[in-house]
Hints:
Family: Belongs to the cytochrome b560 family.
Number of strands: 0
Main location: membrane
Order of helices and strands: HHHH
Mean pLDDT: 92
CATH topology of the domain at 18-34 and 65-124: 3 helical TM bundles of succinate and fumarate reductases
Strand content: under 5%
Largest sheet: none
Transmembrane segments: 25-45, 66-86, 106-124
Function: Membrane-anchoring subunit of succinate dehydrogenase (SDH).
Distance between the termini: 65 Å
CATH class of the domain at 18-34 and 65-124: Mainly Alpha
Membrane topology: Multi-pass membrane protein
Low-confidence stretches: none
Shape: elongated
Amino acid sequence: MSAKPRPVFLEIPNIRLPIPGIVSILHRISGVVLFIALPVLLYLLSGTLSQQSDFEAYRAFVSNPLVKLALIGLLWAYLHHSLAGIRFLLLDAHKGLELNTARNTAKLVFVAALVLTVVIGALLW
């Protein structure tokens, strides 16, 4: 019996992940982004509590459209990470392990994070 020849290289661009895999990778990426952004956000918010002039400088900084866009990106990261984390906790509790349920909950996490980001971002813009 001969073994099948192994591929010499993987064609990474041609590999298509299922939606649960994409949600999992985005969960990890959003966690890293939130971890890196946390000191910056804490520094910015700490200045808002000290003096009126610091608060006005903070408001001027946050009113920049690029900063608002970055904050909306962080809002998406927070929402996606939270919703995907709840999904993974349920999977750890052996809830929703069936293939169709896992796919549907992954789609739900993906769509809910985007919709909530748009709604909350529009309210805060």
